[in-house]
Each structure stands twice: as structure tokens, then as C-alpha cells.
Amino acid sequence: MLTRLNVFTKILLLFVVLLILVLFLYTYSNQESVRLIEHEIQNNTRNRLSTFAESVESNIYQLSLYGMAIGQDSSILEFQRPDYKDIPYERVKLRSAILEKMNLYNAASKWHSTISLYFPRMKQVISTDYYAYIPYRENEFTKPLSQSWTYEDNRFVWRTTSPTTAMSNPGKAKLITKISFPIHHITTLLDQNKLNNKGDPFMFHPKFGLISNSSPGDNSKSILATLQSSELMSSGGIRTTLDQTEYYVSYIQSKSLGWYYVDYVPMQQILRPITSSRNLFYASVAVLVVMSIIVLLTLYRSVQVPLLQLVKGTNRLSNGDSSIRLNYSERNEFSLLFLRFNIMAQRIQVLIENVYEEKLRRREATLKQLQSQINPHFLYNCLFYIKNMARMKNEKAVVAMALNLGEYYRYITRSENDLATIREELAMVKNYLEIQSLRLERMQFTIDVPQAILDKTVPRLTMQPIIENAIIHGIEPKPADGQIKIYASCKDNTNTITVEDSGFGMSDEQFELMKSDLLKPLDENMGCGTWNVHQRLSFLYGKDAGLFYGHSSLGGVRVDIVWQDKYNK
Fold first, then answer.
1. Which intervals hold domain HAMP (predicted)?
2. Same domain, yes or no, for 449 and 557?
3. In terms of domains, do 362 and 503 share one?
4. Considering 243, 270, 297, which residue would you say is the last residue of a domain?
5. Is the pLDDT of residue 47 over 60?
6. Phi and psi for 391 in degrees, rounded to 5?
7. Last residue of a domain, which of 210, 240, 270?
8. What pLDDT digit, counting tens, does each position of 474-491 carry?
9. Total tally of structural domains belonging to the chain
10. Residues near 350 by Cβ (< 8 Å), separated by ≥ 6?
């Protein structure tokens, strides 16, 4: 099917296929690049958040480790000795030493924390918080202590006992250590993380809300609502859309605090260069397509349209229409080509007209030749008949034949026109049948032709050879009475004159042989009468006109003379 398309259509299809291929490859490449960058963004966000979580967990671990180790300090163990109960000076001295060690730890630690030591047996409290009086309350340690850090009044608090087995019943412990630090330490780390990585980290807890950095973004609260409605695991990431902007939210749960370290990045903002490049490419492709369409339209108008006109003109010329002329207003190579085509078509038209005129002259000569062959044929039959009648002393038949022969020659010589009306043909046929009736007394004939067909024209002596054959080959060989029937009809501009006889008739094979003989060139083995009639009708009225044979209802042969009203001059 592709081979049937013209060159312009093939070029257009090739352009469309290449455009689709380029767009497909670029779109696929762009999607792969975006997918790779998104993957890197997600990994980078998780790694940055993981680094931040490790930093927080490291500081919390140091505080927890100190809380575990402080119970083994010699000053604290000595402070718990019963014999120091009644020596105030020594107790104050040990208390000062314990506070000094705790202050030294705070000075060496990254995070300044508040350390409080509870001595249940002595009902005393030692704390690094100099600005707050912390009394010992027995009802504070009636419930088991939490094994992890807790969030209380914007501070994270962790408690441990000595021995550690007293966590479930802290009232029986020798020492209860309480370490707490404010959330501004975490806020400071969040600010540093945001400054170094240009993110917007915060900490989230489903119950307590969030701890944000000093300058939280506007989307933190919206992302908080997304986190609260999602099922969070120990770590992972989720994608959410806020204000038509897609964000990737990464989170890691703190093993110590139970909170989630959260950070999010806007995907579109990071992918904006790629998106801009993609949009620029598509815009360039759109401009290229528009320019290509303009070029293709120009080519179509300047090349394809003239080519189509030239192809159409060539087809019409090949179909025999030599009157075709091409009009082209623009001045280019096609105008010269169209001019040469018009000159060629004009010359071909002149040649065809000359050939056609020559063909008409040849056809006219052929018609006259065919008609002249009938004249002597009929004359031979008449002369032989006169000779036979004279030999038989039949004076009436000789006179009638002589008169008929005179009328015949008067009929064919009175006008140079080769055509005759049906009325004239029937007058000649009737005269001929009356002569034959005189010769064959057992022959009868009927003529039934409507008035509408009497003035139509046919070649002269069209019917006489057919009736002559009906008498010679049909009526005469049969000893019984014979009958010839002539009638006519006209339907859809097709005229038909039928001649039937009551002779012996012919078989289907004989009919087929006669039909084929009518189409062959004339030779010595076939009669020229009916062949001439068929050839003249075909020459004058086309291939659908001529003689057609069939079986007659009278028992003999039926011959249909068929022609159309349109005369081919």
C-alpha cells in the first residue's frame, strides 16, 4: 500500500515518524533522568536526616552513659554512708565535691543538661540547677520509671536508678539519677542542619506535635497533618502534594526519644532546571513543527499541486482526451513544463484528428465496398431466377422479376445516401416477397411494423439478404407450406426488426458457428450477404448492433436486426 502513495505523502509520513521517534526518545530520556534525580534526592535527604539523627543520638547516648556511670562515683557512694549522717561538715564537703564533678561534666559535654541526684534513704536532692529549689517528694517515685527518655514541659528527661533493678520500684533505690535537657539544643542542631543542607528539618511526635527549627517553612504544619494521617514505620519516605507542589518527606524514628526526625524537599523546585529544559525542548519542537508545516505547505503548493495537475493531465491525455490544457500562473520551472505539455497535447490532438478523419474516410470506403458486394450478389440470384422462369415459360414471373430488378436498381441508384428508411426497405422487401410468392405458391408472409419505427434509417439492403436466406435455406427445401413473419419493436432507444421463417431450423452448434462467422474476415467458404449486413451495422452503430440468431416459434430460424437510434457519423 505504501508504494501507491506519492512522493510528497511519503516525505510527510517520514517526517511524522521521525518527529514521533524523536519525541519518544527524548521523553523516555527525560523521564529516566527525572527518575534518577528523584532517587538521588530521596537518598540524599535520607542520608542527611540520618546524619542529623546520629548526631542527636550521640549526644543523648553520652548523657545516658553518664547517668549510668554517676552512681558508681566514689563521692556519691561515700555520701550515702550512714556514719556521715551526723557529721554535717563532711556531708557539705562531699556535696560540694559532687556538684563540682557534675558541673565539670556539663562543661565538657556538648549539651548543657540539668543533673539531679535523688537519695531516697536520705530524703535529699543534689542538682546542678542552682536557680530552682528541688525538694524531695516521696510520692514522685511511687510508680515504675520509664526505660526511655520522656518529654516533659519542653524538656527531655531520662531517669535511672542504682541499682538498676529498682526501676520498677524506685522508692527502694539507693540513688535515682535524673538528667534533662531543653529542646533548644535540638533546635540548634536543626538550624545547623538547615543551614548546611538547605532543607527544612523538624522533629515530630504523633502525641506532642513538632519541634521545628528557628525559621520553619510555611508547609511544616501541612506536612505535620500528612504525617499524623499516615502509618509511619521506623524509617521511610512519603510523597505529598501541597499547593500544587510535590514534596518528598523523609523520616527516621529516634530509638532514644521515640520522636521522628523529619525533613522534606520540594521536588519541582529541584527538578526545575530539567523541567525548564524539557519545556524549552518541546517549545523548540513546536516551533520546528510550525516552520516545517509552513515549508511543507509551500512545497505542496509549489511542487505537489503542479505535479498533481501534470499527472491528472497526463492521465486524461492517455485516456484519449487530447483537448486537455494546463494553466499555471507562477513563473518557475513548472510553467515551462506546462507550456511544453500544452504544445505536446495540441500536436497530439492534431494528429488524432487527422487519424480520425482518415479512419472515417476509410470506414466510408469500406461501407461502400461492402454495399457494392451485395449488389452483384442480388443481381446474380435475380438473373438466375429469370433464366429459370424463362426456361419454364413463366412469362408473369419473368415480367415480375424484371420489374423488381428494375425497381431494385432504381432504389440503389436514385440517391448517393447509403442509408434508407425502414419504410423504403419494407417496400423493397414486400416487392421481393411478392415475386417469391409467385415463384413459390406455398409461401405466405406477414409484415407487422409499427408506425414509430418506419422513419428510422438503416443501411440500404439490410433486410433483403436475410429474407433471401430464409426463402432459399428455410422455405424452399421444405415441401410443406412455408411462412415468413416480419415484425419490429423499439425499446430504450434500441430498435429491433425480427424475421422468422417456418423452415427446418438449425441446431445450437450451427447457431454458434454462424455467430462466430459473422465476426471473422470474409473468405471463400462463407456467404457474403448476412456477413455484409452485420459488418455494416457494426461499423455504423457500434459493437452492440448487428444480427443475432435464435430459434423461431414457427419452427425455423429467427434473425434479429438490432441497432440504436444514435447514428455514428
1. 301-353
2. yes
3. yes
4. 270
5. yes
6. -65, -30
7. 270
8. 888 888 888 999 999 998
9. 3
10. none
